[in-house]
C-alpha cells in the first residue's frame, strides 16, 4: 500500500473520481488495522456526504431518474431511493407522487440488496454465491415490476454490484502470500471466489440475454457483462495454475534439487507485483510481463521436470519417445502392470495437473493422455454392452442414453473445464486432446 493516493481524471468531477477510487481500489487493498485505513474511511464518508447532498431533491420527474452520475456505490443508490420515497410523501416537493408505489418497491429492493452485500463483508467467502443469487432474483423483480427503474440505471446497478464483488474478492486475499502460504488454504479461496464470479456472470447473462428478452418488458441492450470481472476471473485462474505449479515443484523435487535448480527464484516476477490488481491496462501489462518472465524461467527446467515426473509416475526415467512407444504399443513394456493401469495413471495426472500445463511437459505426456482417454471410452462402451445384456442390474429405459452421455463427457471434459471455471480447478485439464 503506497503512502500517497494518486488519482487522475479528465472531464469527470474530481471529487467523485477520488471517492470512486477510494471505494474500489485503495480501501480494498489496505490493511484493516492500519492508521491509513482509518483515515481513508473517514475521508470516504466525508466525500460521500459532499457528492450526494440533495441528490434525490433534484429528481423532479421520471426522466430525471436517469441522472445517476453521482451514484458511486450500492449505499448511494439505496440512500437515493430512500430519500425519493420520503419525497413522494410530500407532493408539493416532487412531481413523482403518481409513481409512489413503484418508487417504494424500488427502495425496498435496492435497500435489501445493499444490506445483503454489506453483511457479506463479514461472512465467509463460500457464502458470497448465496448473496449473488439473491441479488440476481431481486434484479429480476426490479426489472419486471418497476418500470420507473430504467434500463440505463439497471446497467449502472449491475456495475455497482460488480464493483462490490470485485472488492470483496480482493479483500479476501488481503495479506495473503500466494507463494508461501499453505496451498490448500489458497486453493479453497480461489475455487470459492471463482465459483462466485462465474455464478454472477452466468445469472446476469441469462437475465439480459434470455429471460428479459422474452419478458413483457423487453431488455434492449443485449447481454451484459463486466470487463473488470472477466479480467479478475482470468487472473484468479492464472494464479491457481501458477500456484499449483509452485506447490507441485516443492513436492516433486527434494530440498537439495530445489536449491540446485534455483526453483524459488522462478516465481520472483510475481512476488514483485500485486497479483489481484487488474483494473487498469497498466496493471495488466505488469502482470503479462511477469508471466512472460516466469514462463522463460520455468522453460529452462521443463526437461528436468518431465524426467522427474516419469520417475514419480513410472518408477524410472523415460523420454517422450519411450512413452510413445509404450502407450502406442510399438514395443513391449517392462513396466509393472499397475504402472499402466488407466485409473492409477489418472490419479497421478491429477496429482501433477499444474505441471502438466507446461507446454513441453504436456507434449511429452501426450501419448499417455490419449491412451487413458481411449481406455476410459472402452470401459464405458463395455459398460453399455453389459447394461444392454442385463449383466449389470436391470436393463431399464434410458440406459443407452446414460452411457452415451458418459461417452460425451469423456470426450469433452477438457473443453468444458476450459469454458466453465466453476469446475473444481484441482481436477481441470487432467485429460487434454493436444
Overview of this protein structure:
The chain is mainly alpha-helical and 434 residues long. It is built from 18 helices and no strands. The chain has helices at residues 14-29, 35-51, 74-87, 100-120, 128-145, 151-172, 183-211, 227-252, 255-261, 263-266, 268-271, 281-299, 302-314, 320-327, 342-351, 359-364, 366-388, 399-419. α3 runs antiparallel to α4, α7 (183-211) packs antiparallel against α8 and α15 (342-351) crosses α17 (366-388). The two termini are 42 Å apart. Mean pLDDT is 79; it is low at 6-11, 411-419 and 421-434.
Span of the ends, CA to CA: 42 Å
> Given the helix and strand composition, which structural class is it?
mainly alpha
The tally of beta strands, per DSSP, is 0
* Overall pLDDT confidence: 79
Number of helices: 18
- In angstroms, what is the radius of gyration? 27 Å
* Overall outline: elongated
Biggest sheet, open or closed, and with what strands and sense? none
Low-confidence stretches: 6-11, 411-419, 421-434
Residue share in helix? 55-70%
What fraction of residues sit in β-strands? under 5%
Q: What is the chain-wise order of helices and strands?
A: HHHHHHHHHHHHHHHHHH
Q: Short summary of the structure?
A:
The chain has 434 residues and is mainly alpha-helical.
Topology, please?
Layout: H1 14-29, H2 35-51, H3 74-87, H4 100-120, H5 128-145, H6 151-172, H7 183-211, H8 227-252, H9 255-261, H10 263-266, H11 268-271, H12 281-299, H13 302-314, H14 320-327, H15 342-351, H16 359-364, H17 366-388, H18 399-419
Helix pairs in contact: 1-2, 1-6, 3-4, 4-5, 5-7, 6-7, 7-8, 14-17, 15-17, 17-18
Amino acid at each position: 500500500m503506497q503512502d500517497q493516493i494518486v488519482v487522475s481524471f479528465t472531464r469527470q468531477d474530481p471529487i467523485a473520481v477520488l471517492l470512486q477510487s477510494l471505494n474500489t481500489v485503495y480501501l480494498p487493498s489496505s490493511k484493516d488495522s492500519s492508521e491509513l485505513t482509518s483515515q481513508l474511511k473517514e475521508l470516504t464518508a466525508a466525500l460521500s456526504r459532499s457528492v450526494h447532498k440533495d441528490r434525490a431533491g433534484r429528481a423532479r420527474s421520471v426522466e430525471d431518474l436517469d441522472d445517476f452520475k453521482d451514484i458511486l456505490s450500492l449505499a448511494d443508490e439505496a440512500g437515493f431511493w430512500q430519500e425519493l420515497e420520503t419525497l413522494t410523501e410530500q407532493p408539493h416537493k416532487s412531481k413523482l407522487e403518481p409513481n409512489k408505489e413503484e418508487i417504494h418497491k424500488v427502495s425496498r429492493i435496492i435497500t435489501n440488496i445493499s444490506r445483503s452485500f454489506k453483511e457479506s463483508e463479514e461472512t465467509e467467502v463460500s457464502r458470497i454465491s448465496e448473496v449473488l443469487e439473491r441479488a440476481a432474483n431481486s434484479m429480476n423483480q426490479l426489472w419486471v415490476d418497476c418500470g420507473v427503474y430504467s434500463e440505463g440505471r439497471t446497467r449502472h446497478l449491475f456495475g455497482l454490484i460488480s464493483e462490490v464483488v470485485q472488492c470483496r474478492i480482493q479483500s479476501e486475499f488481503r495479506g495473503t502470500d500466494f507463494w508461501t502460504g499453505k496451498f490448500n488454504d489458497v486453493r479453497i479461496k480461489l475455487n470459492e471466489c471463482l465459483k462466485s464470479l462465474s455464478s454472477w456472470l452466468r445469472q446476469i447473462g441469462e437475465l439480459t440475454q434470455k429471460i428479459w428478452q422474452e419478458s413483457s418488458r423487453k431488455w434492449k441492450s443485449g447481454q451484459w457483462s463486466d470487463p473488470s470481472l472477466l479480467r479478475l476471473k482470468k487472473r484468479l485462474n492464472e494464479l491457481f495454475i501458477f500456484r499449483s505449479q509452485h506447490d507441485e515443484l516443492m513436492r516433486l523435487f527434494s530440498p537439495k534439487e530445489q536449491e540446485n535448480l534455483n526453483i524459488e527464484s522462478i516465481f520472483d516476477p510475481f512476488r514483485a507485483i500485486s497479483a489481484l490488481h487488474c483494473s487498469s491496462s497498466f496493471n495488466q501489462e505488469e502482470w503479462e510481463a511477469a508471466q512472460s518472465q516466469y514462463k522463460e524461467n520455468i522453460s529452462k527446467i521443463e526437461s528436468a521436470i518431465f524426467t522427474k515426473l516419469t520417475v514419480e509416475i513410472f518408477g524410472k526415467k523415460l523420454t517422450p519417445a519411450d512413452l510413445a512407444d509404450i502407450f502406442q504399443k510399438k514395443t513391449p513394456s517392462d513396466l509393472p502392470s499397475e504402472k499402466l493401469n488407466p485409473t492409477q495413471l489418472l490419479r497421478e495426472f491429477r496429482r501433477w495437473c499444474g505441471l502438466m500445463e507446461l507446454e513441453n511437459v504436456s507434449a511429452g505426456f501426450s501419448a499417455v493422455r490419449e491412451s487413458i482417454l481411449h481406455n476410459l471410452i472402452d470401459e464405458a462402451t463395455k459398460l453399455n454392452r453389459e447394461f444392454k445384456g442385463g449383466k449389470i442390474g436391470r436393463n431399464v429405459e434410458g440406459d443407452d442414453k446414460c452411457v452415451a452421455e458418459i461417452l460425451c463427457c469423456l470426450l469433452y471434459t477438457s473443453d468444458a473445464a476450459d469454458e466453465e471455471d466453476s469446475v473444481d480447478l484441482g481436477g481441470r485439464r487432467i485429460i487434454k486432446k493436444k
